[in-house]
Amino acid sequence: MALARDLFPGGVNSPVRAFGGVGGEPFVVARGEGARTWDVDDNEYIDYVLSWGPLVLGHASPVVLDALRDTMARGTSFGIPNGLEVALATLVRQRMPHVEMMRFVSSGTEATMSALRLARAATGRDLLLKFDGCYHGHADSFLVRAGSGVATLGLPNSPGVPEALAALTLTAPFNDIGAVDAIMRQHGERIAAIFVEPFVGNAGFIAPHAEFLPALRRLATEHGALLVFDEVMTGFRVAPGGAAAYFHVVPDLTTLGKVIGGGLPVAAYGGRRDLMQLVAPAGPMYQAGTLSGNPLAMAAGIATLTALTPAVHAGIAQRTRALVEGLRHIAARRGVPFTADSAGSMFGFFFRAEPVRSYADARTADVELFRRFFHAALDRGVYLAPSAFEAGFMSAAHGDAEIGLTLERLDDALAVAR
Ligand code: KE4
């Protein structure tokens, strides 16, 4: 890590990896296989971060490796239309029919940045409404009261974002329909889009009230704003058809990432055909990318979505519930204030007695205890996200044996940490 610190800011290529939220030094990974990773000292970890979400089949999934091996033999990148793009987009649309048309890009940030530009182009409006603690990548307009690494490092916002631009971003507390209604009454006619993580995964894991997303849908429609579901994290995790299928709420635009790349750089934005037809070269809104639709990345995504059948998804979801239930029992038995939740193969917990419904709630949890618990878990071979403001992820490779072992180790970790 010494040379890494000399080469990269904080020694990392993405801030959350630096353990800023939990203290100490990150381990250097050597390899991964299934539910596990090993560091360069050959310490083994059951991995619940899974590259921050993409690896829903686990590390080095044979079906993904086979697809990559087969594809790379024919070349790695062309910048020319290729059949794999069509195949992956078809799989996405089969699972999310409301994504009538889409554009592949190479990161979630590109996807949300482009979706915001499209919303502004389509409506001729400038304002964006997002929610406290939600993170939509690091494009300027979204770095306002954001979650994930911004929350982890306690950054107010980010220097370098012009005040004039930040002023175009309005924020409201997640799950607070009254606050959204008031903002829409006051600014609705100038709001291009309401952006939301349908389940928040970047302030810890926070589920919406049953009526929250339907209310956003109604309010966006009422005021002529677009509703954008940022499903970069929830897509194909909270349900086979993502959060839109989970809640039967249809957004105008959707952003995707992580799982659709199976560990390679893929993301996408898409939705209503009339909106996507505005994107160059079909329309005037410009967006481009050298490696968009990269064949290797497409092949990994195709292998992943193909393997992620509803039955496989249901199995992962069941084991995710078992893990969360087991954690609840451990905390209760040890008398530790604790709340946990899950949806599909995503989960999260807070050291706080009452359920967490907003970022403000999340910030009242015992972050110091989380730090001690994180390290006690890591010392016992369980790698949780190194921040109290992140979600956990499961894979098809996390079997009953891994869950049992994890609960044993975390029981011991909590005994030490509390
Ligand atoms: P990327 O630009 O990091 O590919 O995606 C940005 C993004 C957009 N939308 C949501 C809902 C996201 O969760 C993300 C990225 N998530 C973080 C983890 N909380 C990525 C990890 C990191 O920043 O290194």
Report on this model:
The chain is α/β, with parallel strands linked by helices. It has two domains: 2-61 and 309-417, Aspartate Aminotransferase, domain 1, CATH 3.90.1150.10; 62-307, 3-Layer(aba) Sandwich (Aspartate Aminotransferase, domain 2). The protein contains 15 helices and 14 strands. The protein has helices spanning 2-7, 62-72, 83-95, 108-123, 148-152, 163-166, 177-187, 212-223, 242-247, 273-276, 295-307, 310-333, 359-362, 367-379, 400-417; strands spanning 29-33, 36-39, 44-47, 101-105, 127-131, 169-172, 191-196, 226-230, 253-256, 267-271, 339-343, 346-350, 382-383, 392-393. The strands form three sheets. It has a seven-stranded mixed sheet, sandwiched between helices. Helix 7 runs parallel beside helix 8 and helix 14 (367-379) packs across helix 15. The two termini are 30 Å apart. The mean pLDDT is 97. The chain binds ligand KE4. Ligand KE4 is lined by residues 14, 16, 52, 107-109, 112, 135-137, 148-149, 197, 201-202, 230, 232-233, 257, 267, 390. Ligand KE4 binds at residues 14, 16, 52, 107-109, 112, 135-137, 148-149, 197, 201-202, 230, 232-233, 257, 267, 390.
Annotate the secondary structure layout:
Blueprint: H1 2-7, E1 29-33, E2 36-39, E3 44-47, H2 62-72, H3 83-95, E4 101-105, H4 108-123, E5 127-131, H5 148-152, H6 163-166, E6 169-172, H7 177-187, E7 191-196, H8 212-223, E8 226-230, H9 242-247, E9 253-256, E10 267-271, H10 273-276, H11 295-307, H12 310-333, E11 339-343, E12 346-350, H13 359-362, H14 367-379, E13 382-383, E14 392-393, H15 400-417
Parallel strand pairs: 3-13, 5-6, 5-7, 7-8, 8-9
Antiparallel strand pairs: 1-2, 2-3, 4-10, 9-10, 11-12, 12-14
Bound molecules: ligand KE4.
Ligand KE4 binds at residues 14, 16, 52, 107-109, 112, 135-137, 148-149, 197, 201-202, 230, 232-233, 257, 267, 390.
